[in-house]
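Notes from the 1:1 (GR / supervisor)

We went over the backlog. Supervisor wanted to see one worked example end to end before approving the batch request, so GR pasted a single chain during the call. The sequence is below; no edits were made to it. Supervisor asked that the structure be written out right there so they could see what the output format looks like.
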Amino acid sequence: MTKIDPTLSKKCADTLRMLAVDAVEKANSGHPGLPMGAADFSFALWHNFLSFNPQDTQWPNRDRFILSAGHGSMLLYGLLHLFGYDLSIDEIKRFRQLGSRTPGHPEHGHTPGVEMTTGPLGQGFASGVGMAIAVRMAAQRFNDEKFSVIDHKIYALVSDGDLMEGISTEAASIAGHLKLGNLIYLYDDNGITIDGTTGLSFSEDIKAKFKALGWGVQVIDGHDPAQAIRALKSAIRDTIRPSLIIAKTHIAHGSPNKHDSSSAHGSPLGAQEALATRKNLSWPEEMFYVPSEVRRVCDIRVKKLRRKYTKWQKEFKAWRGRNPQKAELWDAMWTKQLPGDLEDQLIRSLPAEAAATRSHSGKIIQKAAELVPSLIGGSADLSPSTNTEIKGSIFISADDFSGRNFHFGIREHAMAAVMNGLALYGCFIPMGSTFLVFSDYCRPSIRLSALMKKQVIYVFTHDSIFVGEDGPTHQPVEQVSALRLIPDLKVIRPADGPETALAWATALKNTAGPTALILTRQKLPVLPHQNIDAERFRRGGYVLKASARPPEVCIMASGSEVWLALAAGEVLQKEGLPAAVVSIPCLEDFLKQPDDYRDSVIPSQAVKVVIEAGRGALWQGLLGRDGLFIGIEGFGASAPEAALAEKYGLTPDQAAKRIADHLNRLGK
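Structure output shown during the call:
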């Protein structure tokens, strides 16, 4: 710690307040209230405890600070600017403007020092739990008796809104269960939301609730840095419980007329009130003013931290010398190392047999785990059904983080956000699984995975109405289409064992974003591949069966309907209608291909048909005006698989008849 006197400490916090006020006023948009209220304890954290190096934002042993209450982004931008990150005062002045490094909510990968994209409340809270798990897992893998390569903390600032969202309670339960003593959250308890006081809808005893969840809880005056420092010291000493420090604050602290006002939450103070705030804080009229003594205080802290960083680098070099095997593992995990023949090895790991793609996936995971030490994963209480357990490795627990498997419990929402935290940490490739219909619980976190371009693998099984007797509550109809709508999410629906192996290879190579693998519960036949081409698979679609003569119809399908397309095509062939069959495991990738490739797969003269046991709107880009979609546009029903196929027209004879009737209507 580097002690500073209370007067100077207040000036540092006031600098953060007024940078927020000025940036929001200039943009005429933003949330000044939280930065003004949380400035005192936030500066105390950054100046006295947070370990970082602004010149190396990816230093593995840095503390992570998450602004879960992302609407208060100007607080984070002010801190990053003062503590030497590559975020100039000109960028502060460009708050919320097109192309600036200071967007309305923090965006990971866009602004140096921003550990994750936040804004949807509760996401930062839950992803921080994932980061804290990653710390414990990495520490157990890499630390030795002489040097703790990994020994840092995860901090976050959370708000009333974060704690109201259900995802936070799910994640807090996981954190308490795993005794994550390296997790410290500061709760800006200002009692104000957009509608008014939190008492309008929120009367929980947060202290009692978090104690019941296994957290250590302290309550402080958030405007007293000395109290914040004492509480943080106590939280750091508590190594067996995650900590919540409830900081009682006033929103828009320092503003004479907007103090404790809901209007300060999401609107500028206004020119007159900004001026009144300046006078109240004895602050100069110059906008974006940073006192030289404040810069000096922050510079001194950064120089001290740089010495700590240099010492770590020296000890890390010595650690590598005496731990060659651990160093090799470190390099493999932090670079997400993959073998050059990944596809071949995964395909060879499968017997050529009819099976559900979830079963194929389970076998592939074992080989992938052997080849890729970064791969870890679990399920939302569905491991026996989703087949995602990595055999030969334990499930992590509060006492042992050496394993590669997770029991997330029945917490799909938190599971997905925790996986984001694991991915953001840097050396893990997380997978998480549940039934496809429950991907709806995961969707906000999946969207953030895509927005942050993080490698997360979502394994969704039980992928259609062919779930059967469980009925429409468990039968996904719209979920595949809904997932395909998320930008930069790769949605792959493999049709058999080799396709499932290539789907997994694609996911493991997809370092620039998340992948959703859509897998069946029901057994699927082996398709007539002649040496499946990995490159054509990666392009999203390929010809599975060509026609002996120019086809009159091209039948396209994904996943469990590919065999149906083949069978329907054979019926048509017998009736004298030449048909080509195309497998399209990843529709989005196929639609991105150049016209010449798409034309080589889908004959231009043929009538286009798609078969998929779900909704079909997104296929229109391939079908054109004369195309035919055979699928499910309503909900399913509770019945055995065969009865459902008959009811919804998803048998070979029914599909062939619909295609023939359609061609007749077109005069073909």
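Supervisor's comment: The chain has a mean pLDDT of 96.
Batch request approved.
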